[in-house]
Amino acid sequence: MRTRIALAILAAGAAVSAAILAGGVTPVSGQGQTTGIPRTADRKPDFTGLWQAMNTANWDIQAHEARRGPVIALGAAFSIPAGFGIVEGNDIPYLPAALAKKKENADNWLSLDPEIKCFLPGVPRMMYMPYPVNIVQGRDTILMASEFASASRTVRMNSKEKSPTDTWMGWSIGRWEGDTLAIDVTDQTDQTWFDRAGNYHSEALKVAERYTYIDRNTINYEATMEDPKVFSRPWKISMPLYRHLEKNAQLMEYKCVEFVEELMYGHLRKRSD
């Protein structure tokens, strides 16, 4: 049943795409064009701004139907919304043993997902969590900061500097390919997941990101994952990121560490009896 629903979701998405190509749906003005996009003094695209994905990929990067959440007492307040998915072809090529671990992760999500414990999300997950990402672009470095747990990373442009160690947010080296910002992310720990569905990776993960303007308020985001310890071949995700246009748009504070102290350390409390 779940597979049939997922296929139906994909078919609906294909029908919308076909309608656009046939002229049945009018694309957003300027979509597919890079004229009029913000540029820096040296004529590079300027991605400075507050951006956010509008999808349900943080629940599951693959196509999925709506279903009851893991906490029955919360009812619809914590149910899982349906989503088209962001994985191209909707297939993640797990090696057999790795697929078994993915299923184990999914079955034990509430106790294993790093997000539950407010650990840093890693890349690419920080780009499609339900929190905005602030990009501040300089000539030699680009800062990307998520509202979630104040997670941030520095993109070093055209650098040969190597990471001193594996970290939660990895090591990002950027370059320009025409009007596309290409970033290679390496040296992430194996502790981050791709979503709440248990999709995961090893410390060997390499992520190749590409940021390209569709119009001045929309970025086409792509990321190709390569991890020979977990996957049989590279695979790719893609989605739009939308600029926040509110007059007072800014990152708010969401330091969630204090929210998980009881969950993680409550059992260590000294008993009064």
Provide the CATH superfamily.
Calycin beta-barrel core domain
* Unreliable parts: 1-32
Largest sheet: 9 strands, mixed, barrel
Report helical residue fraction.
Answer: 10-25%
In spatial order, strands of the major sheet run 1-2-3-4-5-6-7-8-9
CATH topology type:
Lipocalin
Discrete helix count: 4
CATH architecture: Beta Barrel
Order of helices and strands: HEHHEEEEEEEEH
Structural class: alpha+beta
Percent of residues in β-strands: 15-25%
Shape: globular
CATH class: Mainly Beta
How large, in whole angstroms, is the Cα Rg?
20 Å
Oligomer: single chain
Whole-number average pLDDT? 88
Structural domain count: 1
> Using DSSP, what is the number of strands?
9
C-alpha end-to-end distance: 52 Å
Question: Can you offer a commentary on this structure?
Answer:
With 273 residues, this protein is an alpha+beta fold. The chain has one domain: Calycin beta-barrel core domain (Lipocalin, Beta Barrel). 15% of the residues lie in helices and 23% in strands. The chain contains four helices and nine strands, in the order H-E-H-H-E-E-E-E-E-E-E-E-H. A nine-stranded mixed barrel has the order 1-2-3-4-5-6-7-8-9. The protein is globular and about 65 Å long. The N terminus is likely disordered.
Report a brief summary of the structure:
Helix content is 15%, strand content 23%.
Features:
23% strand, globular, 273 residues, 9-stranded mixed barrel, 9 strands, disordered N terminus, alpha+beta, Lipocalin
